[in-house]
Design goal:
By secondary structure, the protein is α/β, with parallel strands linked by helices. It folds into 2 domains: 257 residues, Rossmann fold (3-Layer(aba) Sandwich); 42 residues. Helix content is 50%, strand content 10%. It has 11 helices and 7 strands. The strands form 2 sheets. Strands 3-4-5-6-7 form a 5-stranded mixed β-sheet, sandwiched between helices. Strands 1-2 form a two-stranded parallel sheet. Helix 7 packs antiparallel against helix 8.
Length: 324
């Protein structure tokens, strides 16, 4: 649990929780997604949980309803590593006739080299391409909702400070599927950089169109539970890729990380605060193309502010998804 709490310009800090940053706001399958759903529903939002495992999603829904019987939550199937699944979800959502004010893109897979069903490196495919396609397919629904409700729409990309540590070139357009030079955490950094660049370019385009929809990105913080689970995957991957690193050294490092994360990492309530803040808080009204951390504006890397790189990524993503 993060115990340091110096407040910043917004009035919130790293130790603020999602409930605290949304207090007084109305109408607005696991881990961070579960807590985000709980708090949004608590503030009167009709939440549609897009999950790969609908059984797990239903259990989350039932648990939240026990705590908050007035919550409105739907569960729909979505696998961001499959474009077919993304298209199916978007089609079903649009057919439902539901409005869409807030879209939170929250995937954060961290895995050894694997390809998606569409033959794209998994982290780039699930963490960025899936979000890119989903956002494009639902954008007209968001525009209609913003116009009809006269209420600002918000698109929120959950990135990470890991965006500061991608491959040297930032986005490896020519080597997205190059297994021989693949580095798991560089690939993760690449996908998180892509989340920010996507939000930036989208914000620019929406502004040019005069649409009342904002697009921002954020770093939720190091969340102890998710961090430890992903660290296990990293250890297995490094052990298989680097024979010089012995198992006992890896386990010793893992033990140290567990101890550090227990006291220095955020809990789920703190880890979802920035997401809920950017999605709901009046202080963020009209703000677009920005990056947040600890419920305050934060600095991005030079690559994350590169407009030419953002435009190139947009065009590259369009070519992979075959969307206009």
């Amino acid at each position: 649990m993060w115990i340091f709490g110096r407040k910043n310009p917004s009035g919130f800090s790293a130790s603020s929780t999602a409930e605290e940053v949304t207090q007084g706001i109305d109408g607005a399958s696991s881990g961070i997604g579960t807590e985000t759903t709980r708090v949004l529903a608590l503030r009167g939002v009709h939440v549609v949980m897009a999950v790969r495992n609908t059984d797990a999603g239903e259990k989350v829904r039932e648990a939240i309803l026990k705590e908050n019987p007035s919550a409105t939550i739907d569960v729909m199937e979505l696998d961001l590593s499959s474009m077919a699944s993304v298209r199916k979800f978007a089609s079903e959502y649009m057919s439902s006739g539901l409005p869409l004010n807030i879209l939170i893109n929250n995937a954060g897979a961290t895995v050894p080299f694997t390809l998606t069903q569409d033959n794209i490196e998994m982290q780039f495919g699930a963490n960025h391409i899936g979000h890119f396609l989903l956002t494009n397919l639902l954008l007209e629904t968001m525009k209609s909702t913003a116009l009809e409700s006269q209420r600002e729409g918000r698109i929120v990309n959950v990135s990470s400070l890991a965006h500061r540590h991608p491959y040297r070139e930032g986005i490896r357009f020519e080597k997205i599927n190059d297994e021989s030079s693949y580095r798991m955490w560089s690939a993760y950094g690449q996908s998180k950089l892509a989340n920010i660049l996507h939000a930036n370019e989208l914000a620019k385009r929406l502004k040019e169109q005069g649409v009342e929809i904002t697009s921002n990105s954020l770093h939720p913080g190091v969340i102890a539970t998710n961090f430890l689970r992903q660290r296990t995957v990293q250890i297995k991957s490094r052990h298989s890729q680097n024979k010089k690193i012995t198992g006992w050294v890896l386990l010793a490092k893992y033990s140290l990380v567990k101890k550090i994360a227990k006291y220095m990492g955020k809990n789920l309530q703190q880890g979802t605060a920035t997401t809920c803040y950017v999605a709901l808080h009046p202080q963020v009204k009209g703000v677009s193309g920005e990056f947040y951390s600890d419920c305050n504006l934060a600095k991005r890397s030079a690559l994350a502010k590169d407009e030419e790189l953002a435009k190139k990524l947009w065009d590259f993503s369009l070519s992979l998804t075959n969307t206009k």
